[in-house]
UniProtKB/TrEMBL annotation:
Gene3D superfamilies: Cytidine Deaminase, domain 2. Pfam families: dCMP_cyt_deam_1 (PF00383). Residues 3-124 form the CMP/dCMP-type deaminase domain. GO terms for molecular function: catalytic activity. This is tRNA-specific adenosine deaminase. InterPro entries: CMP_dCMP_dom (IPR002125), Cytidine_deaminase-like (IPR016193). Signal peptide: none annotated. PROSITE patterns: CYT_DCMP_DEAMINASES_2. It comes from the Bacteria.
Amino acid sequence: MTPGDEKFLRRAIELAAEARAGGNPPFGSLLVGPGGDVLAEERNTSLTEADITAHPELKLARWAARELDPAAAAGTTMYTSCQPCGMCAGAIERSGLGRVVFALSTDQLGGLKPQAAPSSFRQEGPALFDEARVPVEGYYL
Protein backbone atom coordinates (compact mmCIF):
# COMPACT_ATOMS: atom_id res chain seq x y z
CA MET A 1 0.00 0.00 0.00
CA THR A 2 1.53 3.27 -1.13
CA PRO A 3 0.84 6.76 0.28
CA GLY A 4 -1.03 7.42 -2.99
CA ASP A 5 -3.22 4.37 -2.43
CA GLU A 6 -3.99 5.60 1.08
CA LYS A 7 -4.91 9.07 -0.23
CA PHE A 8 -7.37 7.63 -2.74
CA LEU A 9 -8.82 5.20 -0.19
CA ARG A 10 -9.44 8.13 2.13
CA ARG A 11 -11.35 9.83 -0.69
CA ALA A 12 -13.43 6.65 -1.17
CA ILE A 13 -14.24 6.74 2.54
CA GLU A 14 -15.26 10.41 2.21
CA LEU A 15 -17.56 9.46 -0.66
CA ALA A 16 -19.06 6.73 1.54
CA ALA A 17 -19.76 9.32 4.25
CA GLU A 18 -21.39 11.57 1.61
CA ALA A 19 -23.58 8.68 0.47
CA ARG A 20 -24.72 8.06 4.04
CA ALA A 21 -25.35 11.77 4.63
CA GLY A 22 -27.50 11.73 1.49
CA GLY A 23 -29.69 8.92 2.82
CA ASN A 24 -27.98 5.99 1.11
CA PRO A 25 -25.88 3.04 2.24
CA PRO A 26 -22.34 4.20 3.14
CA PHE A 27 -20.27 3.16 0.12
CA GLY A 28 -18.08 5.23 -2.18
CA SER A 29 -15.60 4.59 -4.98
CA LEU A 30 -13.37 6.38 -7.43
CA LEU A 31 -11.54 5.37 -10.58
CA VAL A 32 -7.96 6.57 -11.04
CA GLY A 33 -5.93 6.53 -14.23
CA PRO A 34 -2.34 5.25 -14.48
CA GLY A 35 -0.98 8.77 -14.05
CA GLY A 36 -2.85 9.33 -10.80
CA ASP A 37 -5.67 11.42 -12.26
CA VAL A 38 -9.18 10.85 -10.90
CA LEU A 39 -11.33 9.80 -13.85
CA ALA A 40 -14.68 9.46 -12.06
CA GLU A 41 -16.20 9.25 -8.59
CA GLU A 42 -19.42 7.64 -7.41
CA ARG A 43 -21.48 7.14 -4.27
CA ASN A 44 -24.08 4.52 -3.47
CA THR A 45 -27.51 5.86 -4.49
CA SER A 46 -29.54 2.67 -4.16
CA LEU A 47 -32.15 4.19 -1.84
CA THR A 48 -32.54 7.69 -3.29
CA GLU A 49 -32.72 6.31 -6.84
CA ALA A 50 -34.80 3.27 -5.82
CA ASP A 51 -32.33 1.11 -7.73
CA ILE A 52 -30.88 -1.90 -5.94
CA THR A 53 -27.98 -1.97 -8.43
CA ALA A 54 -26.83 1.63 -7.82
CA HIS A 55 -23.59 0.59 -6.11
CA PRO A 56 -20.67 2.94 -6.80
CA GLU A 57 -18.42 0.12 -8.02
CA LEU A 58 -21.00 -1.02 -10.56
CA LYS A 59 -21.60 2.53 -11.76
CA LEU A 60 -17.86 3.07 -12.28
CA ALA A 61 -17.43 -0.27 -14.06
CA ARG A 62 -20.27 0.64 -16.42
CA TRP A 63 -18.76 4.08 -17.01
CA ALA A 64 -15.35 2.55 -17.77
CA ALA A 65 -16.84 0.01 -20.20
CA ARG A 66 -18.59 2.85 -22.07
CA GLU A 67 -15.88 5.51 -21.96
CA LEU A 68 -12.50 3.75 -21.96
CA ASP A 69 -10.87 1.51 -24.51
CA PRO A 70 -9.64 -1.84 -23.14
CA ALA A 71 -6.02 -0.73 -22.78
CA ALA A 72 -7.00 2.39 -20.86
CA ALA A 73 -9.38 0.42 -18.61
CA ALA A 74 -6.63 -2.09 -17.83
CA GLY A 75 -4.42 0.76 -16.59
CA THR A 76 -6.93 2.02 -14.03
CA THR A 77 -7.29 1.42 -10.32
CA MET A 78 -10.62 1.50 -8.53
CA TYR A 79 -10.45 2.63 -4.92
CA THR A 80 -13.48 1.68 -2.91
CA SER A 81 -14.58 1.97 0.69
CA CYS A 82 -15.53 -1.70 0.89
CA GLN A 83 -14.63 -4.89 -0.96
CA PRO A 84 -16.94 -5.17 -4.00
CA CYS A 85 -19.94 -7.49 -3.70
CA GLY A 86 -20.40 -10.33 -6.17
CA MET A 87 -22.51 -8.23 -8.54
CA CYS A 88 -19.93 -5.46 -8.63
CA ALA A 89 -16.98 -7.83 -8.87
CA GLY A 90 -18.53 -9.39 -11.96
CA ALA A 91 -19.00 -5.97 -13.56
CA ILE A 92 -15.44 -4.94 -12.70
CA GLU A 93 -14.10 -8.12 -14.28
CA ARG A 94 -16.15 -7.62 -17.45
CA SER A 95 -15.20 -3.94 -17.75
CA GLY A 96 -11.50 -4.84 -17.78
CA LEU A 97 -10.37 -2.63 -14.91
CA GLY A 98 -6.81 -3.40 -13.90
CA ARG A 99 -6.84 -3.19 -10.11
CA VAL A 100 -9.14 -2.71 -7.13
CA VAL A 101 -7.98 -1.42 -3.74
CA PHE A 102 -10.52 -1.54 -0.91
CA ALA A 103 -10.66 -0.34 2.69
CA LEU A 104 -13.07 -2.70 4.50
CA SER A 105 -13.17 -6.38 3.61
CA THR A 106 -16.46 -8.21 3.26
CA ASP A 107 -15.75 -9.97 6.57
CA GLN A 108 -15.00 -6.67 8.32
CA LEU A 109 -18.20 -5.16 6.93
CA GLY A 110 -20.13 -8.18 8.20
CA GLY A 111 -18.93 -7.42 11.72
CA LEU A 112 -20.32 -3.88 11.49
CA LYS A 113 -23.88 -4.72 10.39
CA PRO A 114 -26.62 -7.15 11.36
CA GLN A 115 -26.37 -10.70 10.06
CA ALA A 116 -28.06 -11.00 6.66
CA ALA A 117 -30.86 -13.50 6.26
CA PRO A 118 -30.02 -16.54 4.15
CA SER A 119 -30.98 -16.32 0.50
CA SER A 120 -34.69 -16.88 0.08
CA PHE A 121 -34.84 -17.78 -3.59
CA ARG A 122 -34.38 -21.24 -4.99
CA GLN A 123 -32.14 -22.05 -7.93
CA GLU A 124 -32.73 -25.09 -10.10
CA GLY A 125 -30.57 -26.32 -12.93
CA PRO A 126 -28.68 -26.93 -15.07
CA ALA A 127 -31.27 -28.15 -17.54
CA LEU A 128 -31.78 -28.40 -21.32
CA PHE A 129 -28.06 -28.31 -22.08
CA ASP A 130 -28.39 -29.39 -25.73
CA GLU A 131 -30.88 -26.60 -26.43
CA ALA A 132 -29.31 -23.91 -24.26
CA ARG A 133 -25.85 -24.29 -25.73
CA VAL A 134 -26.96 -23.58 -29.32
CA PRO A 135 -27.05 -19.74 -29.06
CA VAL A 136 -23.85 -19.71 -26.97
CA GLU A 137 -21.65 -22.20 -28.79
CA GLY A 138 -18.96 -20.45 -30.80
CA TYR A 139 -19.67 -17.00 -29.37
CA TYR A 140 -16.56 -16.87 -27.19
CA LEU A 141 -14.07 -17.96 -29.82
